[in-house]
Please model this.
Amino acid sequence: MKPNSVAIVGASETTELGKVPTMSQVQLHADAALNAIADAGLELGDIDGIATGGHNAVEIAHYLGIVPEWLDGTSVGGCSFMLLVRHAAAAINEGLCTTVLITHGESGRSGLGRHGSSIFPSLFQQQFERPYGVTRPPTMFTIPVLRYMKQYALTEETLAMVAVVQREWAGLNPRASFRDPITVDDVLNSRMICYPFRLLMCCLVTDGGGALVLTRSDRARDLRRPPVYIRGTGESGETPLISQMDDFTSSAAFRVAGARAFSSAGICHDDVDHLMIYDAFAHLPIYGLEDLGFVGRGEAGPFIAEGHTRPGGSLPLNTNGGGLSYMHSGMYGMYALQEGVRQMRGEAPAQVEDAEISVVHGVGGMFGASGTIVMTNVA
Amino acid sequence: MPQGERELPRPTPETSHFWEGTRCGELRLQRCDACGTVYFPPRHFCPKCGSTHVSVFRASGRATLHSYVISHLPAPGFEPPYAIAVALLEEGPKMMCNIFDCEQTPEALVLDMPLEVCFETINDEITLPQFRPAREA
Model:
């Protein structure tokens, strides 16, 4: 990966987010795609590369009337879009295509035109986990947390603070699903979903989509919007089985993807102005802050509780409100990337002043895979 | 919303020895003859060194409670709230399980408490390994 050689030149979410009973899943892809292409000042005919996760990339190409020269359908969960940005940058650098469209659409709430229930099937999960009553993500993603809580004396109150702080950011964002302030007591009194996780520690389930357009940086400078450069990238995967995660207090996939993104970007932690960490559940920003190396082991809970990641803090984190309060269709990674782009363009609802470097970190499956993108508005 | 029957394992060639073991009341693991690594889930080679010289052996059945959640969500074949746990086996590997013969509460389910394997017979083909609090030795 050559830093800053490829840029995001178009970015948009679907026209509507939340409850969109008027659109099927592929329609959400297309709505976001058309918005992003228009944002770039391009036309459908300019797109020669198509990438998507969680949906057949050929169906997206066909639906949009594009016969592409490059396709990528990497589907490793919600961080697929971080991996697709990385793969697209490599493909553009290699000359396999010139202009890539990455789409996401998910009818997570309304379930219109969704694929089957398991889009990331695993042989071993079928035999060695599903018989024990794991069903939806709250019954799996949460399993390592009691081990972390014991090892680092993380309290339920501190875990609840993650949701409280993110709601503060959501309050600044008119498009966020939930904007009313909440307290630690609100979180701890909300309905028990999967001990120790209560409702307000779990992400939303919504409809929506998003799309990105990428091209070479030298071409990007002639386009409509200020380029957001891809400065560094990383990806990894550990296991499709939460029970087989090597260390229940730390994700190997996070560590590998994050370290590679930072080294390829040539940045250190102090350079980071804005951070997104995919938050399907309240513990993810805690694991992410530690595995990316922003704080030491066991320090992330207190770091968040002390206010360092809240509006006005030293490390603005999940500034759209996150999957906990903004939106979460199922594969949230695209929305984290969109917020990174908005921050780098200087047009986010909760804009971080003078932000030049944004790190967007995603998870796929239940700590299964990971992708990290370092963006910048400085060529 | 989960519907229908509880999902049961569909054994495959590399896991058949495991499910044969549980049918006769044995928890079977694999050990690499080359590097000594004990591993799970079953494979025909060692995921540490790649050797195909591996042996099946009977595990002690002793474990500790490594982590868990107590699910309040509906699931076919389960009555919420129920614990979904991960046992850390004495031999090293981790294994998902439910906890039998124990209140499904945070007070009763204490991390690192000793567990022992037990078996839940589902039908003629499938017996699941499960764990319960270890009885006094």
Observations:
- The two ends of chain B are 43 Å apart (CA to CA).
- The mean pLDDT of chain B is 95.
- The CA atoms of residues 31 and 55 of chain B lie 5 Å apart.
